Amino acid sequence: MSAGPRTPFENPVVEWVDQRLPIFTMINKEYGVFPTPKNFNYFWNFGAIAMFMLVTMIVTGITLAMHYAADTTVAFDKVEHIMRDVNYGWLLRYIHMNGASFFFIAVFVHIFRGMYYGSYKAPRELLWIFGVIIFLLMMATAFMGYVLPWGQMSFWGATVITNLFSAIPVVGTTIVEWLWGGFSVDNPTLNRFFALHYLLPFVIVGVVFLHVWALHVTGSNNPSGIEPKTEKDTLPFHPYYTMKDSFGLVVFITIYAVFVFFMPNALGHPDNYTPANPMVTPAHIVPEWYFLPFYAILRAINFDVGIPFTDIVFFEAKLGGVLAMFGSIVLVALMPFLDKHPVRSARYRPKYRIALLLFVLSVFVLGKIGGMPADAPLMHIGSFLLTTTHIAQLLTLYYFAFFLVILPYLSKREKALPMPESINDAVLQCKSGKCCEA
Amino acid sequence: MGAVAAGSVVWPFISQMNPAADTKALSTTEVDIASIAEGQAVTVMWRGKPVFIRHRTAKEIEEAKAVDVATLRDKQSDDQRFKTRPEILVVIGVCTHLGCIPLGQKTGEVKGDYNGWFCPCHGSAYDTSGRIRKGPAPKNLEVPSYSFISDTLIRIG
What is the pLDDT of residues A310-336, one digit of tens each? Predict the structure, then answer.
């Protein structure tokens, strides 16, 4: 990040600072004149939107922390105190609460964008892996944040998720008691979750810095998946993309504000307005919506994996479910190494495009099933009762097959459509009505 | 040498998360079982977890003993679980899958396909001995260490 030859600034104060620390030169290089492919569509807004959400969550989170106390005897009441007594406390909490959902919406679209246009491929593999690490950190942060209001869903969500680690052979129980600081989810657990919920967002900021740094080394991908070759292919970041990002952000914030002001509890669970009770489990425990597809994968593995017709079991259903759930995210990180096809964009890969859209559909249906009770009956086919578990098992199979079978197979076999010579040619094709889609 | 030094510096920062001395000290609970009539069940708190005590009927004990142990996922006979007084069942009321509290203690609650307990979270069903019979849970409901102080008083822990 050292400055090369510097162009002097007109403003004497800016110039004085820049001579000593070339921060204005850096900003101009990375966000002013930064050459950016000229064919971005609105999918390219979501990185900036996710960044905006991260800042929103940190600002509202720090202000909420000024009024909260992580102690099981008062935590629930403190949240109600924020809602009823603290000046604008209701607003801060509803921005924060719905902000988690909208942060995940932005990140899910951002990840889909990367998958569809092949942004994970060389030379952007490390950039992609940093992204998956950010996603994992977000999941951990969101999970611990949801425990803090100490309602029924907080308590039982924490119980179920921490118990996942008890599936680890031999040391499982020791690990879970270490996580809890006791023999069940209790005050020590709440305390440490608050400490970590405050810390992890700043770790995310650190990884986001690496993510953006890596992005500015390789440059952005674009809808055609072709690297920029000449100046005709790019535009300066400012004012073209500062403007396009701002417009998209305003649209996004408008929808977000509708939730905050008019339907703030639409994405939550009424059970979490009941104080935590370690003696009663709610009839239907569901995680927040952004975890539902992964929760459905966890529940889909309800059978021991071993050699059939013997007592030999490699791992029990419980460990199998946990491995499948974490595995489903590890596979996303490994995508650059599973898909070796030389063409990036799904625009020129019709088979990959169908496989990916089916993958997205299966994630949506898994999410729907994850929110329903386990083994909910769907219909009778003859004497066979079809339940949600069967559907979840089928879709989990497709989820894993997409990464482990379809991607490697298509890498070798798929014939891509004819490609334009450059980004500029791709844009001109679209203008003359010859391009297949946006 | 360096590894030992680094390890001994890191260890306190890891071990501080383990259960503290005062948490560990809350280790025993005494329960009067005189008032639990045959067929009734009570739930008591021990180490922050519910413990199910059920005064089983002759039919329930018979059901539990009639099962072929070889067919069970976690192979334990009823005699192995409740040696001294089989009519008094004592188990930790925490599903061995992911830690929810199974239903079946109160009258009117679903008891599952095996007349014992049913976990609403992921559908595990336990029999009248608290053994896992159906669903994702890997183990039987745990029997805590307990002893009869007198005919009507038990100490858990």
Answer: 767 777 778 888 899 999 999 999 999
Considering the candidates A38, A154, A224, A245, report the single residue annotated as catalytic. Answer: A245
Domain of B112, in residue numbers: 21-156
Q: Tell me the pLDDT tens digit for each residue of A95-149.
A: 999 999 999 999 999 999 999 999 999 999 999 999 999 999 999 999 999 999 9
Tell me how far apart the alpha carbons of residues A132 and A403 are, in angstroms, rounded to a whole number.
Answer: 15
**CATH fold for domain A37-431:** Cytochrome Bc1 Complex; Chain C (1.20.810)
Identify the CA nearest to A293 among candidates A395, A402, A159, A145: A395
- Output A9 or B22, whichever has higher pLDDT: A9
Phi, psi angles (nearest 5°) of residue A187:
-55, -45
B97 assigned to active site: no
Give the active site residue among B122, B139, B147, B148: B122
Q: Report CA A196 to chain centroid distance, whole Å.
A: 19
Confidence of residue A85 (pLDDT cuts 50, 70, 90): very high
- CB of A158 within 8 Å of a chain B CB? The answer is no
Residue B42 lies in a domain: yes
For residue B121, the domain's CATH number is 2.102.10.10
What total number of domains does chain B contain? 1
| B66 in a structural domain | yes
Calpha distance A13→A32 (Å, rounded)? 19
Q: Is the pLDDT confidence value at A12 over 90?
A: yes
Neighboring chain A residues of B119 at a CB cutoff of 8 Å: 281
